[in-house]
## 1
Amino acid sequence: MKQLCILICLFVTVNTYGQSAAESLQKGIEKHNAKDYEGAIKEYTNAIKADKKLRDGYYNRGVCEQALIDMKAARKDFDKTIEIDPSFVKAYYSRATIAVSEEHYKEALSDLDKTIQLDAKTPNALSLRGQLRAQTGNKKGACEDFNLAKEYGDAKAAKYLAQFCGNEQQAGESLMLDWPESENWKVGDNQENNEQHVLDLIHSNETIEKWTELGNMTAYKGMTAKIPMDKAMELMFDQAKKNAPKAKLTFLEKDEKAEYPWILFTIEAPGFNDDKTPESQLWYIIQGKQALYTNFRAVKKASISAAQKEKWMTFFKTGKIVNK
């Protein structure tokens, strides 16, 4: 009878112990979702005190600590999470993001390799590894990651393909333009057929229907004949005048003798036939060996300021035709 009482008491104690951990974990999740990170950390800590091997308690606490920029504590909790469950994908990815923020790229790549090994479809993992590979000189590996991320539906993958790999419009050749990460670009539209590949870029807080600044990269496939750059400029201007008769063309700079001839110019329109909103574009056209690449940046203004013009010209001059 005494032994039975002891067993019953032990069962009750263990059951209460387990409920306490679960209850604290749930309270932590509720505060976490409400972005009360400090309150959530307290609840997760209570849950961990009740269950020293509570994987989700350590991981969730680490996420909150990371949100509060306490990277040392967050890393420690992610380490513990992985110790408890070596197959917990999220912990490897979260630990990788800490390493990236501290510019410990070798450590970050190791954790991202493990993340992708466990689940290649982990959101953002392929794109993040691709960025690190690009920055450390592994362009081929980077583009492989971005292409796979795109297949899995990562919305940012097309942007990174454009940024680090050119548009990959033609096998063996592409135009690489490094759209500044600080300007928060995202892909607004991406269409391709046998004749051309058109990519529109907008800021992350805008839409393709409503934007303040637009970027465009278009590759006309198979246009291998070297047409005079002035002619290419005039063709774009003639096209613009059909919808904006008062548009103004301004030549800026060109180099016809370069291996890949290029030209810079602006088309500034005070309005269009069916829309009175002004729009000004700074164009960069470059002739490749497998395609003609036309690119522009646009703002909804009647003209482009001198400072912005200089900035955009400098940006476009970083463009490079690359062959793989």
## 2
Amino acid sequence: MDLGISGRKAIVCAASKGLGRACAMSLGREGVELVINARTAETLEATAEEIRQETGAKVTAVACDITTDAGREAVLSACPQPDILVNNAGGPPPGDFRNWDRDNWISAVDANMLTPIFLIKATVDGMIERKFGRVVNVTSAAVKAPIEILGLSNGARAGLTGFIAGLSRKTIRHNVTINNLLPGPFDTDRFRSNIQVQADNAGVSYDEMLATRSADNPAGRVGDPYEFGEACAFLCGAHAGFMTGQNLLMDGGSFNSTM
């Protein structure tokens, strides 16, 4: 399917690896001009070159901390009028809420709630004026099924979800959609680190915990980031203009519900 977005401009956050990289790669294959960001310049530029070589897309790499005012300003200076915005940020560390202080909570809210909101604020009116916009927020399956050790993420991402539920109904009239894409277990560095924590807590090896987690999923496996990137690209496409305010799970069927 031609998604109808060749020549569009996109910002993809936290795109040097993992799910962000997969989203950028899939958009690049659709002919989208990319501005990608991450904190580590060397890793980010290597990813940018991989996307250029594989897709032929124009890619601008902006190494910065997207959770800061300066970082957002740098990214928006590189792409002041994006047609597509993919909000993504690494989740806060797992742990016990008894060990988290105010700074831990503020950091989580800054990264996983306020940063997406501020980027939307900076770009949505331009999208509305141009009568095209696609915003995809990479959140987490934990928004629907909270994970006990990820309390910081559960709380911050739930706040973003509530905000998007209201805003997305106001923008779709102008062909600007805002949706949340909720990953379950995908083979990323973040997933592997969480598996290690769970393995340590259970007193088993990493391989044993990974096998258990894979077997427990109805799909019998963990997800491939490629699959996630392709779903993101579809949501960013011209044909997805009648879908907004949705929380779309990609978890292999592990969330068991009729709704």
## 3
Amino acid sequence: MTFSTIEKVTADQQVAQLGASDLLAAGRRVIRREAEALLILADHLGPSFAQAADLIMAAQGRVIVSGMGKSGHVARKIAATLASTGTPAHFVHPGEASHGDLGMLTKGDVALALSNSGETVELADIIAHTRRFGIPLIAVASRADSTLVRQADVAILLPDAPEACETGIVPTTSTTMMLALGDALAIALMEHRAFTPEHFRLFHPGGKLGAKLLKVRDLMHSDLPLIDAASPMTEALLVISQKGFGVVGVTEAGALVGIITDGDLRRHMDGLLLLDAGAVMTKAPRTVAPDALAEVALAAMNDRKITCLFAVDPAKPLQPVGIVHIHDCLRAGVI
């Protein structure tokens, strides 16, 4: 390697280091600027926020959310968040609305329109439609004198905060505030409706969240491996083989009083077939309620190093109503 080549490599490394430093500084500046804007937004919220929530609560239909460009992307997310937290909502593209999709916005609905300038041309037909048919319109914009705000029944104004870019023309801080405002509305409505994790699970049956909120009753089997305590062990072995859970529950007068596992079988190998189930069983087995979260059942099985739990009816102590296997939990994605 020549001296000139070494000089070029060193120079390139210095440029790369300067570039990385500048990029990091820019990234931090953007995040801080948007974080500061969110703090301003929180302090800026006033009665119009509560009025918007009241309009939505009083609606018999859905919240129709609309916006164009970057505001449209945010509007889609707001509609999805509202719908998943107990407030029926749907996104309507303003361009498509002008070509037939206005039919998705009907009496009983509430329109939520997002536009930083408040002068988005594509929203004109949606605004006119809400005025013509008396559909409540909530505006989110930054200009109090804009067309959207002047036409709206309730207007939530975004505070004056600079965009994150140095030129001030790229929608960044403004869309971040819109997104946070949508989350604030959704959560305020969710809490007002006393929306529970059980309700949330109904709208999120799939993926990790759905698995986390599964209950024992969602996974348990009702075809139970049960025998009476006075039954001979020959019958117990037959039930274990037929049901395929590797265990059998032992009952007295319908109440679960014990369980027989492979460990119990090994401990009583000497003269096993001469014994009855009551003599072999482990008394007072660990149980779970049908409405317990599946992850609680899985944790109990892992803790006790067992593979099955009987579910018992809380209203009828020791009355078995189901059985859940550790493999059922794992297959459903409960971890």
## 4
Amino acid sequence: MLILTAKEIEKVYSMQDAIAADKQALKIYTQGDSDVPLRINFDMQKGQSLFMPAHIKGSDIVGIKIVSVFPDNPQLGKPSVPAQVLMLDPLTGEVCAMLDGTFVTQLRTGAVQGAATDLLARKDAKRAVLIGTGGQAISQLEAMLTVRPLTDVAIFDIDSEKGKQFTQQMKIRFAHFSANLYFSQHLDDDICQADIITSVTTSKVVTFNGDKVKSGTHINGVGAYTPEMHEIPASIVKKADIRVLDTKDGVFAEAGDIIDPIKQKLVSQSDFLELGDLVIQPQLCRQNAKQITLFKTVGTAVLDVYVGYDIYLKAKERGIGINI
């Protein structure tokens, strides 16, 4: 069995790799060539543990992500949300790899936004806004910078000190992209100018003013993943010319910022596409520079398993990781 830490994964796998893998994974999902059972959730004395399996039928890839939420862990010097991805060898059924699940989750979640932005944002997009600077924010920023030659990215967090510190760190980390990264002091003004907006928070109220969004903007809703959470304004869900989800089953069951506009009859379920539809039929992507496009993701184990196995193959080829 090959053990792969976050640092070892970074050596063999780029954001570009992950974006390409996410597109393929969701194409497979939309074509019905995968089996994704409902995740199993165990309530424990100190927290929760979730088991998320998936089977990619054509290539017989099977894996599972195990992620736990144990709020008291930091007092023990441990992460509050530990996670691992386990992969099975398609030929023998043996566990062939264990990957840092927290890093894989961050990577594939950034990449799925990058895939959507690549397929839906205007090719000449230059200005972006990133709302939220939590654990998923680094990969979200990297994905936007990877798929479009951005000149300016406004970064906002309701905790301004946290947001400013994050911005300074990202200026160093992503200096090679040559984009102007700055903390947003006037979010409305930055929203007005944005070609791409990505919100990655657990907010129960909308994170930006939908009336400020200009024609031609692409919007990503990445953070809100329960019926109580609402990042994206209902006005934008209604106004968007193209509405795309990572998976309909997941978003319609979990994402409050999509569930509520449907309940309010502002839109219907038939108004949404899956990202896999766009990969299969590129003509469904943006048709002109004035369309407002919207992407919403809550995640699926197909992404973890497909990306996890792709990472395993690349690491094995290069002799990276610890064999036990």
